[in-house]
Design brief:
alpha+beta; Nuclear Transport Factor 2, Chain: A; 4 helices
């Protein structure tokens, strides 16, 4: 499977509410870095911790998580940069509609690092009450 296919299928797994399928694309020593200077910024290490984060995020949505729509995907060597929209209805009744940029770095055909950028102000404003 190509790097492009892995990225598209990994994001598709999240959109489909299939976290185990997403986690299968990850390297055992994966690092997930949520960039920024806000309450959601962190570095998460390992599949189990990433799975726990996905469950926490998914629990805020009516349908179990955001739906992702890939806009642009650029692959160079062992890295891919993807921009996409994340949307969905939150359990608090608010609409989630966010822009993302993620960098996927691969080792031995698996995702070894994800660096995520998103509109943290939007997340904070719609996730609150």
């Amino acid at each position: 499977m190509s790097t492009e296919q892995v990225v598209v299928q990994a994001l598709g797994a999240i959109s489909a509410g299939e976290p185990e399928r997403f986690l299968a694309f990850l390297h055992d020593d994966v690092v997930y870095a949520i960039s920024g200077n806000h309450p959601f910024s962190q570095k998460i290490r390992g599949k189990e911790a990433i799975g726990a984060l996905m469950a926490q995020v998914g629990s805020a949505f009516e349908d179990g998580g955001p739906k992702y729509d890939v806009e642009r995907l650029i692959v160079s060597g062992d890295s891919a940069v993807v921009t996409f929209k994340g949307s969905g209805l939150l359990k608090n009744g608010k609409t989630y509609d966010n822009d993302y940029c993620m960098i996927f770095d691969f080792v031995d055909g698996r995702v070894a690092r994800i660096t995520e950028f998103f509109d943290s102000f939007h997340v904070m404003s719609v996730m609150a009450g």
